[in-house]
Amino acid sequence: MTPPIPMPQILSLTQNHLDRMRAAAVAAYPAECCGLLVGVLETKAQWRVTHVVPTYNLRAEERNDRFAIDPVTHLALRRCLRGRPEHMIGHYHSHPNGQAYPSAKDLAMGFEPELFWVIVAVNGKRHAGATEAYRLDGKAVHSVSIQIRIATSELQNRLLHSHARQKVG
Ligand SMILES: [Zn+2]
Q: Which one of 17, 132, 135, 142 counts the least CB within 10 Å of its CB?
């Protein structure tokens, strides 16, 4: 028997990662946006996103409820990650006028249970709403918690500011 693939329950990302996915979702409206997520395994329960990579949606012109990640970008990214500790851990797309929940089409496409799916809902007023993460195994939808972490640069800024305040005070 092959050992089971670790199935992390938490996806850790920065506010900036989240903002970029949500901005892409608004920019693509009324079509769907899509992109890839690169990250590292932090603990058995948690993957940490290190890069959000926007990709061209090959099906954006065709229908408003479809996405297909550009295979050229996908392959280039895989090549770029070879020999590095980071992996392609999932992707994101938007649901214009929809819910941040996998559609029947998504579920039919979701046959790689180790991949994270991030879905951003965009309403008719072009506002990004709920943003949720899942894993799909072709049969069922598994919810994943999104955890917002403080970016290292942000943390450094905060520390610098607190030092500056201490000096002034
Ligand atoms: Zn979808």
A: 142
